[in-house]
């Protein structure tokens, strides 16, 4: 049985300031960068000015912070303040443009040094873990955990979840958001190992309370929710995320796929 880890006291994400742009991560479609900060930490920064904009960062926060509270490993998140001049010596114009478009607050993901990309041919994950990850991805509708692009890292012998920017895609078109929309698990990298999805579905919803969802959604900086079309203010957008995920976690199971063998 899974219980909540005690001690998540914080109500906002910690804030750090970028001090050095180290290198771009060119394998990431959104051109994230490795960046050092004033707390001496090293982070993978997902930039607000990248292609799909701030909603991607909202999805990253809500999903990773929810995953963490379901005992799935995911790197710590912080908000990082960026002065684009720290990248002034980067010769690539695309990076210059991205930094210029991202002045101010961005998302920092704790860098896991020496982590390897998960390869289903090299690692056999525990069926319970595989099933919980698949259930979670179905809940948040994360289409970016395929065998082509697993977005899982292996670090210190454990599987870590990264890159939730493509999840919660209903938020790109709120009027059509449907908490019952079915998740297609056919491409999911852990589907071959996920033999205990029913057990995951029996355990995890009890952890996903309204309070828990509110705590997670409250971690999103208000300025990334302000001005969302169709909503009066950031508080209304937060409520919509809570309502959607609560309805999905506790309503009918039309969204949960049979896992293909
Ligand atoms: N916290 C981390 N620690 C170490 N390496 C990381 C971390 N986060 C990301 N990476 C590496 O950087 C790559 C790109 O990161 P990420 O998947 O988050 O970016 P993206 O632009 O959203 O990618 P995608 O092309 O999948 O949309 C990852 O595949 C991984 O190799
Ligand atoms: Mg990725």
Listing every helix as H and every strand as E from the N terminus to the C terminus, the arrangement reads EEEHEHEEHEEHHH
Approximate shape: globular
The total of helices stands at: 6
Q: What is the alpha-carbon Rg in Å?
A: 18 Å
Content of β-strand: 15-25%
The average pLDDT score comes to 94
SS-derived structural category: alpha+beta
Walk me through what this model shows.
Helix content is 26%, strand content 16%. The chain has 261 residues and is of the alpha+beta class. The protein has two domains: 15-110; 116-250, no CATH class. The strands form two sheets. A five-stranded mixed β-barrel has the order 1-2-3-5-4. A hairpin with a 2-residue loop joins strand 7 (152-155) and strand 8 (158-161). The model has no long low-confidence stretch (mean pLDDT 94). Residues 25, 27-30, 32, 44, 75, 109-112, 115, 117, 144, 149, 151, 153, 162-163, 165 line the site of adenosine-5'-triphosphate. Residues 25-255 form the HipA-like kinase domain. Pfam families: HipA_2 (PF20613). This is HipA-like kinase domain-containing protein. It comes from Sphaerisporangium melleum.
Q: Can you describe this structure in just a few lines?
A:
With 261 residues, the chain is α+β, with helices and mostly antiparallel strands. The chain has helices at residues 54-69, 93-100, 127-139, 197-203, 210-217, 234-250; strands at residues 15-24, 33-37, 42-46, 77-82, 104-110, 116-117, 152-155, 158-161.
């Amino acid at each position: 049985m899974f219980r909540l880890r005690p001690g998540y006291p914080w109500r906002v994400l910690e804030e750090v300031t970028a001090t050095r742009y180290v290198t771009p991560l060119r394998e990431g479609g959104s051109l994230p960068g490795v960046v050092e900060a004033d707390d001496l930490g090293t982070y993978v920064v997902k930039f607000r000015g990248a292609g799909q904009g701030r909603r991607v960062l909202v999805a990253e926060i809500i999903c990773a912070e929810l995953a963490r509270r379901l005992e799935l490993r995911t790197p710590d998140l912080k908000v990082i303040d960026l002065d684009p001049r720290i990248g002034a010596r980067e010769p690539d114009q695309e990076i210059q443009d991205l930094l210029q478009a991202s002045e101010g607050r961005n998302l920092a993901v704790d860098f896991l040094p020496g982590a390897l990309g998960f390869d289903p041919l090299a690692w056999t994950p525990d069926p319970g873990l595989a099933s919980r990850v698949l259930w979670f991805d179905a809940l948040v509708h994360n289409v970016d955990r395929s065998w082509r692009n697993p977005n899982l890292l292996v670090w210190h012998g454990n599987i870590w979840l990264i890159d939730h920017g493509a999840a919660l895609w209903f938020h790109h078109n709120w009027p059509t958001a449907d908490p019952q929309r079915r998740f297609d698990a056919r491409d999911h990298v852990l589907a071959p190992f996920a033999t205990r999805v029913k057990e995951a579905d029996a355990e995890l919803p009890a952890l996903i309370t309204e309070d828990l969802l509110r705590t997670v959604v409250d971690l999103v900086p208000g300025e990334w929710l302000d001005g969302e079309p169709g909503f009066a203010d950031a508080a209304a957008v937060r409520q919509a995320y809570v309502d959607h995920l609560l309805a999905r976690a506790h309503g009918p199971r039309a969204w949960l796929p049979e896992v293909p063998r």
